[in-house]
């Protein structure tokens, strides 16, 4: 993947999400700030996604009104702050058409690049594993390196 290839990252993420196995977990984080992340969890009936949205220092993530509106328009659910939820979430029924995975990947790419200020996909790392067994998932098609500790909850 070239240094600034957000299009290639979006295509790779689409492919990986469409093939994520049941009980598969994928967390994509900024290599230099692990509190800035997106995560995905595949169940037998949906792909669940979250994007980090922390209003608390030192992990402040300022989600602009424009970014919030873009997430709403793309079908994301706002955090319920009354229940201490901090992350925006999205549920994609499974199985889904390829276009739905692509739309999800485009929204996530935009969030990473524009809201979390990730300058390049090469500034990202990932963790991936099977929830049931904590067995690591190898996802070379994603095109970004695994984080040093590869399995287990983020």
Automatic annotation (TrEMBL):
<feature type="domain" description="TY-Chap N-terminal">
    <location>
        <begin position="5"/>
        <end position="124"/>
    </location>
</feature>
<protein>
    <recommendedName>
        <fullName>TY-Chap N-terminal domain-containing protein</fullName>
    </recommendedName>
</protein>
<dbReference type="Pfam" id="PF22552">
    <property type="entry name" value="TY-Chap3"/>
</dbReference>
<dbReference type="InterPro" id="IPR054344">
    <property type="entry name" value="TY-Chap_N"/>
</dbReference>
């Amino acid at each position: 993947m070239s240094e600034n290839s957000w299009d290639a990252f979006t295509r790779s993420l689409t492919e990986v999400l469409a093939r994520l196995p049941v009980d598969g977990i994928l967390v994509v984080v900024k290599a230099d700030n692990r509190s800035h992340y997106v995560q995905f969890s595949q169940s037998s009936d949906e792909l669940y996604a979250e994007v980090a949205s922390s209003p608390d220092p030192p992990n402040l993530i300022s989600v602009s009104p424009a970014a919030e509106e873009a997430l709403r328009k793309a079908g994301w659910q706002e955090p319920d702050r009354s229940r201490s939820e901090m992350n925006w979430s999205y549920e994609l029924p499974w199985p889904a058409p390829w276009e739905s995975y692509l739309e999800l990947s485009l929204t996530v790419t935009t969030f990473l690049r524009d809201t979390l200020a990730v300058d390049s996909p090469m500034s990202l790392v990932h963790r991936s594993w099977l929830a049931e067994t904590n067995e690591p998932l190898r996802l070379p098609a994603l095109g970004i390196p695994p984080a040093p500790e590869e399995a287990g909850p983020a």
